[in-house]
Specification:
Elements lengths: L3 H13 L7 E5 L3 H4 L1 H14 L5 E4 L5 H11 L4 E6 L1 H10 L7 E6 L5 H6 L7 H8 L1 E10 L2 E3 L2 E5 H11 L6 H15 L3 E7 L2 E13 L3 E2 L3 E2 L11 E7 L3 H7 L14 E6 L1 E5 L5 E4 L2 E5 L2 E14 L1
Parallel strand pairs: 1-2, 1-3, 3-4, 4-17
Antiparallel strand pairs: 5-6, 5-17, 7-9, 7-15, 8-9, 8-14, 9-12, 10-11, 12-13, 14-17, 15-16
Helix pairs in contact: 1-4, 4-5, 8-9
């Protein structure tokens, strides 16, 4: 029996056989942003209709579906995909694409955290899709990759990965930034720093880490500027390595993460590289854009100038 995703992809393939009639596809995650994404999409859609712009819309209904849709849309020859959702939806889309390629990706931030949109200086606007389709410009940016999984914001291990694990494991009554803060408090009470081996170029160091974040962009968790020096188009990965500290020190320093000033702490190092390997004797969980993708070991590398980003 075919899965729900397979059926939808089959229908999509049937609809676009022989080439697309439209240049622009829109992938919408209707449950993003505490299930407010669909209402925002209706506002966006009406502005496109009012201005007689052509587009085709595809809705996600299951985890991982945005990757499958992006893959089939690209194969069909569409020149542009607008992504209405949060960072998780965008993460799925970039992992469905065959890159590098000429397809343009535009971000419609209808999710909760919207950390990548924050880096771009983009906020929700019902006319954003209209602006992207009529006046948008292309910005060529980097992505990161860890264990063959692409990420657009941050990947890593340690405290933040464990928080992501707790969020994904489920706080049934809260979502988004609130769920992240609940998970953060839970992990704060229980987390134990463990030794990690870090390999950069020809060097090796072993540290008991609070967290090790490898970044393409600065933000995670709905506005935490955890790797403030990260740039999306400089051809490098930027690393924030926080070494073991006391829980009291974590509590004192945590608020500073929102401004990025935690990097001034004497137990925090910032590094820049094009690739890094990390391993541990402990099965530390590994995240990419807040999605748990396995455990260590991990190999990270930058994918320079690989994505054509459509910006206002």
């Amino acid at each position: 029996m075919e899965s729900k995703i397979e059926v939808v992809i089959s229908i999509l393939a049937d609809e676009i056989v022989g080439g697309p009639k439209l240049k622009t596809a829109v992938i919408v995650n209707p449950v993003a942003g505490r299930r407010k994404s669909f209402e925002k999409w209706k506002e966006i859609r009406q502005r496109l209709i009012d201005n007689q712009l052509d587009f085709e819309v595809f809705f996600t209904s299951a985890r991982g579906m945005a990757s499958n849709l992006a893959r089939e849309i690209q194969k069909a020859g569409y020149s542009r995909i607008l992504v209405a959702g949060g960072d998780g939806t965008l993460h799925e889309v970039i992992n469905g694409l065959d890159l590098p390629g000429d397809i343009e990706i535009g971000v419609l931030p209808t999710g909760t955290g919207n950390d990548f949109a924050r880096e771009l200086g983009i906020t929700y606007d019902k006319d954003l899709a209209l602006k992207l389709m009529t006046k948008g410009r292309i910005r060529i940016i980097d992505l990161g990759e860890v264990n063959q999984r692409k990420f657009i914001n941050i990947a890593g291990v340690g405290f933040d990965a464990q928080v992501a694990h707790e969020v994904n494991s489920g706080f049934k009554f809260v979502t988004g930034t609130v769920a992240y803060l609940f998970a953060l408090v839970k992990v704060l009470l229980t987390y134990k720093s463990l030794p990690v081996d870090i390999f950069i170029e020809n060097t090796r160091q072993t540290e008991e880490v609070l967290f090790l974040s490898v970044a393409n962009a600065p933000y995670i968790g709905g506005g935490m500027k955890i790797v403030p020096q990260a740039k999306i188009d400089d051809g490098f990965l930027h690393i924030c390595l926080a070494k073991k500290v006391s829980r009291m020190d974590i509590l004192r320093t945590l608020p500073k993460i929102y401004k990025g000033t935690h990097v001034k702490h004497p137990r925090v190092d910032t590094l820049i590289t094009k690739e890094i390997r990390i391993s541990s004797n402990s099965p530390l969980v590994l995240h990419a854009d807040g999605e748990i993708i396995g455990t260590l070991p991990a190999y990270f590398k930058v994918l320079p100038s690989i994505l054509h980003l459509l910006v206002p």
